[in-house]
Structures
1.
Amino acid sequence: MNKDRINKLLNQLPTHVIIILTMIIWIVPTLGLLVTSLRPPEAVGSSGWWTVFAPQNASGPYATYCADCHGVDGKALPQADLSNPELIAKYPRSLQLLAMLRKPINGQPHMGDHPLPSAQEAADIATYLRQGGQEAASQFTINNYIDALVGYRGQDTYRADCAAGTQPPDLKCNLSDILNPRGMGRAFVNSLLVTLPATFLPILFAAFAGYAFAWLDFKGRFLLFALLVGLQVVPLQMTLVPISRFYAQIGLNGTFLGVWLFHTGFGMPYAIYLMRNFLGTLPKDLFESAYLDGASHWTAFRQLVIPLAMPAIASLGIFQFLWVWNDLLVSLVFLGGTTPVMTYQISNMVTSLGSGWQVLTAAAFLSMLLPMIVFFSLQRYFVRGMLAGAVKG
Amino acid sequence: MATPQDISKPATTPEIAVRRKPVKAPSAAPVPEIMKQGPLVPWLYLLPALVVMAFFIVYPMINTIGLSFQNRDGTASAATTCREGQPCWGVFENYRYALTAEFNTSSPGAFWNSFWSSSYGNTIKWIIVMVFGTVSVGLAFAVLADRVKYEALAKAILFMPMAISFVGAGVIWKFVYDYGTQQNQIGLLNSIITSLGGRPVAWLSTTPINTYMIILVGIWIWSGFCMTILAAALKSVPDEILEAARVDGATEWTVFWKIMVPIILPTITVVVTTMVINVLKLFDLVYVMTGGNFQTDVIANRMYTEMYKNFNVGRGTAVAVVLVLAIIPFIYYNVRRFLEQEATR
C-alpha cells in the first residue's frame, strides 16, 4: 500500500517539477515588480530585489572589513570619520566604494592584509554607512506609490520634499496633488473615464445587433454576419490614420468622446459575434409565447433578452474592459499627453527614463491593480468569452 | 454562447473544410413565423452598430488604401515624391519605400542580413518563435496540469499575464533584463548569470538576441490564452479512448501524440491562426521595450513610427496596407471556419 503510494508519487514527480517550475517562472517577474515598488530608492539601485528575502545584516560586512581600523562607531580615525555624512555621500554605491578601497593610502593598500569586500558586501557597507551606521529601520516603504500617484520626479521623495518645503513647482503638497497631470492618480481617473463608457457602449449596441442577427428576419442577414466575422481580424493600424485626420478636422483629437467612439467601433464585430451566438441558443418557445402574449420586439428585447443575456454581457464586459484599460496604441494616438491614461503615462516613463525603477514599478503595479481585481473575481466569464470568440482586433 | 465543445468541434478537419464545395448559406436560427414584423424593424436594431462599424472600420480602411498612394500629407500623388536618379515606382512609391527601404541589395549576402534585421524579418521571427512557444507551452501545461491537485491555481498563474497590459509586462521584463554595472546587477537574469560566473549581457540592445528576448515576454503573456483554449479542447477528448489505449499498453507519450493531438488538431489550428494574427498586430511590447531600436522593429511598430514620429501619412498607410495584406489569408480562413460551423450547427 505504502509502496504503491511512493511509486505513484515518484511517477508523478517530473510532472510536479515541470508545473511548479513553470509557475515560478511565471510569477517571479511580477513578484520582483511588486517587491521593488515597495523598496526605498537607494536600496533599489544598490541591490537586487531578491535580497530582501535574505537575512539582512549590514553591520556584518562593516564589522568584518572596516571596524578594525575605523572603529565600531566609525569615529576611530578623525581624518576618515565614517559617521560624517558629507564623506559618506561620495561613496553612494558599491562601485565608488570599491574604487576608493582599491586606492592605496600613504603607499599602503587601503585594506592592508584584509581581502577586498565583494560587490554585494560593498553595497551593504555603503547602505549601512549612508543610514548613519544604523540598521535599516525598514526595508519597505510606500513612498514610491505616493511619488507615482502625484507624479513626483525630484531627487528625494515627495514626502521628504514637502516636509522640507523644497517640492518641485508643479506640486502644492496638499490633496490636489493627487490630480497632478503628470501623476498616476490623474491617469487612473482618465483611464476610468475612458474605459467605462468604452465598455458600456459596445455592449449596448452589440445587444441590439445581436438580437437582430439571432431573432429577426431580414435580407442579407447571413452575408452581413459573415462580413462581420471577417472584420474581426482587421488590424487597428489600418484605420488609425484616416480617423485621426478626421478627428483633427472636427476637433475630436484629445477628447474622451473620440476614444469612446473609436473603441466602440472596433469592439463591435467581436461583441456582436458573441452576442448573436449566445442569443441564438435561447429557446425559441420563449419568444413565441411572449409574442402570443402580445409582446413586441422591443418588449421582448428589454424584458427577455437583456436579463437572459447577462452571462454574455458579463463575458463581453470584462473582455472589453481589459482590452480598453490595457490599450496603449489608441490612447497614444488620440489622447497622447493632453489627457494621459495609465498605459501612456508608464510608457512615457519608460522611454524618457525620467524616474527610477522604484517609481516606475510602483506606477506599473498601480495600473495592474484594477484589471487584476476584475480578472480574478470574474475569471470564469473571461474564460467563457475567450472560448467563444478567441479572436479580438 | 459557445461551450468548450463548440470550439473544439472535431466534426470537420481543416483539410475537409478546404475541399468542400462552397457552403450554402444556412439561416442562423430559424425565426418563428409569428415574430416576423415590418421590414424596417431589424435595421433599426442594427443601425447603431452598422453606423459605428461603417465609420470606424470600413470607411477608414478604404481611405487608408487611398492615402497609401499619396504623398506625406495626403495632398498629392505619391509619384511626386520620387527623387531624380533614385529608383521610383511611380504611384506605388510608398510601397517601394515600405517594401524595400530596409533592405541592402548590394549583394545577396548583404540582402540576407538586412532582411533578417528588418521589420519583416523580425515579424517572421516573431511569428515562428512566438506561435511555436505559446502553443507548446500552452499544450504541455494543459496536459500536465490536468494531473495535479492544484490544477486551478497553476492555470490561474499561467493565465494571469493576460490581465496585465503589454506596457506593464514590458516594465516587468525590462527590469528582469536590466543591464547594470559589472559589480552590481539588479536585473534578475544578469544576476543569475554573474552569480554562476558568467558575464552580464545587455539583453535588449544586443542584436540579434534582443528580438528573441522580447518574444519571450510575448510567450509569457500569451501562453495562458493558448493553454485555456487547448485545455477546454482536451477535456472533450473521450476518457474511454484514452483509457483503452493505456490498457493496451500505450505510453503517455504515445497517447499524447497519437490520440490527443490528432483529436484536438482543429483547435490547435484555430489557436495557431489566432496567435499569428495577434503577433502581426503586436505593437506595444516592442514600443515599450526598445522602441524598435537595435534592429527589433516589427511591421506594426514601423507603421506607428512612419505615421506618428516621421509624420508621413503616405508611407505609414502603405505599411498598414502591407500589414493587412499579410492578414487577409487569415480573414479568409476565419470566415471559412465560421461557414463550416454554421453548416454543422
2.
Amino acid sequence: MSLYQVQKLLYHVNRDAERRERYRRDAAGFVKGYELSDNEATAVLNVDIRTLYAMGVHSLLLRPFTLLNKVSNEDYAKALKGLE
Amino acid sequence: MSIVFACAASHAPGITAWTEAAPKEQADKFLASYRKLGERLAAAQADAIVAITVEHWANFFLNSMPTFCIGRAAHYDGPVEEWLRIPKARIPGDAQLAAMLINVCLEGGFDPTVSDELLFDHATFLPMHFLNPNMAVPVVPVIINTLTTPMPSAKRCFALGELLGRALAKSEKKIAMIATGGLSHWPGEAKHGKINVPFDRKFLDNLLTGDVSSLTAYTHEEINAEAGSGGHEIRTWIALAGALQSWKAELLAYEPVAPWATGCGLVAYNP
C-alpha cells in the first residue's frame, strides 16, 4: 500500500519495453509484482485516471501511462475536470 | 578561450511534436528565433556545450533522485520519446570537460552525482535539434532535479551556475552554455494548458535587468503556484544567470503558445 509502489509500476511500464510487454500480456498478473493495496491495484488495472491523480501519482508518469493505454487528450482532461 | 555563446530556451515537446497545432505566426516567430540561436552557436565555433538541463523520468526514479548530476559519458542517445519527431541520434560527450567541472564542484562546495550513462529526453534533445542540429558539438549535461520534491533552491542553483561559469570562463576550450526548460506550464495536470503570462514576463524582466536578488528569491511554493510543476525548470535559467553575471541578456522571443501548453521563451546572452 504505497504511492511509491504505484509510481514504480507506472515508471516500469512507461520506460521498460520488456516489462511493458508483460503488463500488456497479463496486467492482473503484472500488478501482483508490486506491493499495492486492493484499491491501488484496481485503479491501475482500470486506468482510473482521476483516482491515480488524486492519490498523488506524478503527472509525467500518469500521462505517458495513459497514452500507452490510448487515452486521448480530451478524455484525459475530462477525467481530471474539477480538480484544478 | 572561454565562454563564447550562451542562451536559455524552452523545450516544450509540442515545438517539434505538434508544431502545426500552434497559430502559424506564433510558431514561425518562435522557430525562427530558435534557428537564429543555432546560427549564432555555429558562428561561435564552440568546442563543447555545457547544457544546464532537466529530465523527465528518463534516467532517474524515486529510488535515487539526484539533486544535481553531471554527465561524464562518452556519448548520449536520444530522444527517449518516439513521438517527438526528431530523428534518433547519438551526441558525443566530453568526459574530460565533465571531469573538470565535477572537480570544480567538489572543491567549490557542491557534490553532484556523476553519471557515465544518461539518455536524453526532449529536455536536452529538443534544444540540441535547433542549437546543435548536426549533433556534432560534444555536450556535458548538468541536470538539476526539477521533477520531484525536494528540489534545490533558486539561490543554490544560482550559486552552482556561478561556480560553473567562473571555471568555464578560464577553460582552454570554446564553451557554449545553454539552459533549458520553462517557462510556466502544468504538464499532464488538471491545469494542463494554463500559461501564466504575467509570471513569465516578470521572470524574463528579472533576467533582462540582471535582478539577482529577485532571481534568487523565488521559492518552491511560489513557482509551484504561479508557474506550475513544469515551471520549476526555470531553475536552469537561474543557474545560467549565475554563470553570466557580467553578460547582458537579450530577449529573442516570448510566445505563450496555447497548443504547446507552455510559455515559450528564448533568451540570448551577449558579453
